[in-house]
Amino acid sequence: MIIRESAENYLETILMLSKELPVVRSVDIANELGFKKSSISVAMKNLRADDYITVTPQGYIYLTESGMKIAKTMLERHEFLSQWLISLGVDKNTATEDACRIEHDISEATFEAMKAFINKK
Fold first, then answer.
1. Model confidence over 24-45: pLDDT tens digits?
2. Do 21 and 52 sit in the same domain of this protein?
3. Domain check: are 11 and 55 in the same one?
4. pLDDT tens, 6-28?
5. What pTM does this model have?
6. Which residue segment(s) compose the domain that 97 sits in?
């Protein structure tokens, strides 16, 4: 199944917020991403329909197993690529922004090869 970049970003954000907050709600995602709550509601509806998240009656959002797998993949790529770009001398803000773009487009094979090469050093 092909997942859109925006969905990957939402799942990654839910994972990051779940490490900081006791529970994640739509308003937390909206605040983190700077989006309107109505936009987040539509996105959460789609993620729920695709079985990437569950939402409790209280509005708490949890990643399903498949949602967690995608979120962890995106977060790993983001953190790795950010650190690598910073180590090349790219300033932190630019590195973070660039990593966010790269993480969605790079193939699994290329990412694994990059990790193996960089970790050899």
1. 999 999 999 999 999 999 999 9
2. yes
3. yes
4. 999 999 999 999 999 999 999 99
5. 0.88
6. 70-120
